[in-house]
User: What shape does this take?
Amino acid sequence: MARVVKEPAERRQEILDTALRLFYENGYEQTSIADIAHALHIAQGLCYRYFPSKEALFDAAIDQYAERQAARLQQGLHAPATPLRQLIAEMPTFLDTETPDDPAYQFCHGPESGKVHDRLSLLICHKVLPVVETRLRQAVADGELRPCDTEALASFCVYGQLGLLLDTQLPAAERVQRLRAFLQQQLQQLA
Amino acid sequence: MARVVKEPAERRQEILDTALRLFYENGYEQTSIADIAHALHIAQGLCYRYFPSKEALFDAAIDQYAERQAARLQQGLHAPATPLRQLIAEMPTFLDTETPDDPAYQFCHGPESGKVHDRLSLLICHKVLPVVETRLRQAVADGELRPCDTEALASFCVYGQLGLLLDTQLPAAERVQRLRAFLQQQLQQLA
Amino acid sequence: MARVVKEPAERRQEILDTALRLFYENGYEQTSIADIAHALHIAQGLCYRYFPSKEALFDAAIDQYAERQAARLQQGLHAPATPLRQLIAEMPTFLDTETPDDPAYQFCHGPESGKVHDRLSLLICHKVLPVVETRLRQAVADGELRPCDTEALASFCVYGQLGLLLDTQLPAAERVQRLRAFLQQQLQQLA
Amino acid sequence: MARVVKEPAERRQEILDTALRLFYENGYEQTSIADIAHALHIAQGLCYRYFPSKEALFDAAIDQYAERQAARLQQGLHAPATPLRQLIAEMPTFLDTETPDDPAYQFCHGPESGKVHDRLSLLICHKVLPVVETRLRQAVADGELRPCDTEALASFCVYGQLGLLLDTQLPAAERVQRLRAFLQQQLQQLA
DNA sequence: TATGAATGAGCGTTCATTCAT
DNA sequence: TATGAATGAACGCTCATTCAT
Assistant: This one.
């Protein structure tokens, strides 16, 4: 086939993106390196110049995605002089988004392969947890929040969303709205 | 080899138990049907009389385990005339236990293969959620709790624990204690 | 399951009939002993009381069928004082039949699995060949036919039909009719 | 093992040739992909780069062989200005040959596994039939042959040989000779 | 005679990974 | 950097066959 040469960083990213998509849509086991290479129009061997194994590629792909979501949230939370109220209003967005262009959109609305979705959900929560806890601690320091077990509170704020978010029975919009309302109410009681 | 004939129900349960243990200890992919059969001293083919595929065996195994955990919790929650306070005090036990004999003990303290542990955690939460919500609704009806979005509250009570429970840095005992304290405090505010 | 006891001969025949049907419809490899036993509502092990192996069962099944077809033809050919003309008119019936009750009907009109159909066709021809040759030799003795290589003639009369009979493009009725017309014409030239 | 890289077309042909030989000698079921790969000194997996399944490999192998036999006959039949007499004299060669170097030699004289031989015989006849019919139609057009059901005639000329050819009792040379003599005599009557 | 749970060997197939080009 | 033919080990699964009941 026509040999196409690209910048290593670009190639690497291409592979990560396509791998994540396929793993997410079809599951880890049901996605072979051949599938990924085929979708990218590259040779199988090329994947191994960028990642030492399939497992490493998978880990890198979901890790990068989770990292991005955590970074997005961090930006929102650390905007200077943003009150906790704001935090509450924005919290659910780390898992969802209303703009279909956002890669997170796929996460909540696209086709999904249960197992990978589960893992990704937990990984994102895992990375988001310290971000939220830091903000909560700051809120306590600022007097916005009464002193409490901020780690536990962060755990409930972050992981507690999963029950509703993973409930595929409910319309996505409703899940988000109810989460916001609930969180807002709870946090006000802790002020 | 000496041929041992057993009641189908007994054989089936044997396979489920051993399969869950091996999947949990070594991971889904790292556990072959041959491993399971070998551990049971049975022929590989016998597994296929009881489960149509490895995937189906895995699903059945984790499903049964999660179901049992949910049933355990339900018993505790529906003891007649038990106040919500009690509920709070017992909640974390659906994922943990102090008695090493309990199968749940393994879950929190045994060796674990991350991916299966993740899936099992979410599955248990998934099955426990409606149980808790039902109890919360009853609490509202009894005047123990102010009216609120019980579904969201249940989601936070159940899934919210995962952040701390999955934090392998903390000693298991501490995780449970802090969760209880936190939940108790929260629910009292909602009374 | 309810234990049903039958006359050995009857059981054996049941097994042969069902085996032939399944082999014919699904192919030899695609038909397992379990399939046959299941269709008969008997235990797998029972097949092995009547036939030593799957291969033996298959051979017995197609052999019996072919034998029957040959016997049918022989009756027609050896009816006392039947002229060769009659023979010609009846010949194609060894592979086909117009009565749907006849087991041969299935052969030409039912669903079929190519490979078994091929084998069965050749086996029937193989068994029919000597029957036809004997009749041809008698025809020569009776002066109905000029002396010739009766074995070769029988080969062409019997196997020669396969080309048209196996042509699934043509309607079954047409195949038979054309074969009769052609054979009749040919044999008249040899008178 | 030392890795040997070949042109895909060459590899593919190697596999086809060896597969046909082993299938023919030992039968379809008795020949495993491992056997074929072993005989070729290649890895089993390589067979699956060229053929999607064992069945597909088998079909491709016998199909290619039958196609070649049909092509050989076609050349002989369509030599310009060759009279039908010639056709008759050459007909049997589509299934047999006197030169041991010819792959067809193996077919009639080599070791054989009944079932594969049967299938191959019928497949060759199937492919040869239209070739012969075309020639017969031309013969009618040329006035070499009286008008008749050329399709039926072709069927008898081609498939009719099988009875003698498959008669393993007779010496191969005798089968061929008698077939030629018989066909020649028959076709002359149709002139 | 009949059952059906159990065996165990084998097979087709897949696929992560390597390497000659 | 990139290709893709080739490897080879493993694995899921099937199934003819056996045997305790």
